[in-house]
Amino acid sequence: MNKDALRIAASTVLVSLLVACGGGGEGPGNVITRHEVLPASDVTVLAGASVPLRASAETFGPKLRAMVWSSAAATGDTAGSLSIEDAACAHGALSARDVPGSTGLSVGSGICETSARVPANAEGQFTISSTVMAADETRSAARILVNVLPKPRVDYDFTLAARVDGHADGTVALNRPLRIVADVKFDKPIPAAAKLEYEWSFLVGGGNFTSGSGLALNGSEVTLVLPAQGLYVMLVKAKFTHGAEVRTKTATVTLNAEPASASSAQRQLDFTVSAATAQPEVFVGSPANLRASYTVSSAVATGKPSFKWSQLSGPRAALSNPALASVFVVPGEAGTLVFVVEATIAAGAIEETRSSAVTVRANAVRERGAGG
What we know:
Number of strands: 25
CATH topology of the largest domain: Immunoglobulin-like
CATH superfamily of the largest domain: Immunoglobulins
Radius of gyration: 24 Å
């Protein structure tokens, strides 16, 4: 695909003209019949974040030859540059099928998912372009405008993660004590006068705490018992205070509670699913890409799983095709949003479903310190 990428790069002027005229898919015979990109609108991100990207295209007549991404500064005072992973879509999926009864006519299709990395020193406006090319050299381009805000300057930066001790996959037993831990890591030692406070709560489900009081627990770890089978999502807030600097970060942990007798050895399929995102915090109106991955025992002959995404809690968000393993969500309001994916896999007459949750925190654009 490298030669095609060079060919497209060498025809930037032609692509610009096609974009100015409404795209490259309106030529004779409407060769490129569809070219869509996500995000579908302008994006605002903090420096140091990433922008998920997805392009899909179809051709009629010639096959689809290439799909590439590129980026450039949109204004003269833009600082830094974006780095697009797999810009030549080497890992994209291109396919074609012949049109029955025709001579030399095909229907081509392609999908390319990747992301653009925003360096910590970037600031200003950038354009990200998706260009597709058919075998007859017909091209189409679509562009996304990315507004990059500077990362807030802080004296002490930190990360926050939450985990359930001794249960890496989040599968736990009912009515047994569980130790949930908040892990905080600072970029440098903090003064003794600094204060770090914690607060735990449930976003989905509810349990019985056996340490602390109520839901306003202020320790870095809690012990609890889950009373019913199902999916639970816990939220921990860590508030750091040092003089005038006050910052709050959040993290979540997902628990799948099962009866103590439902051990993995008793499951007919050794099948797990995990939901994750590379954009755990976004601005309102900007997307996060949620991905489901799975593992299944190689000793079991199964097909590929089917997926079903839905939103469990938080302000409602637009969700792209929920039947795909990879989906885009665009929050319309600030808040913490919880999404769950259900994956179902079959082996002969055996069918089992697993679920996993992932959270996205949406910040109002005026909050220039997303996550701070």
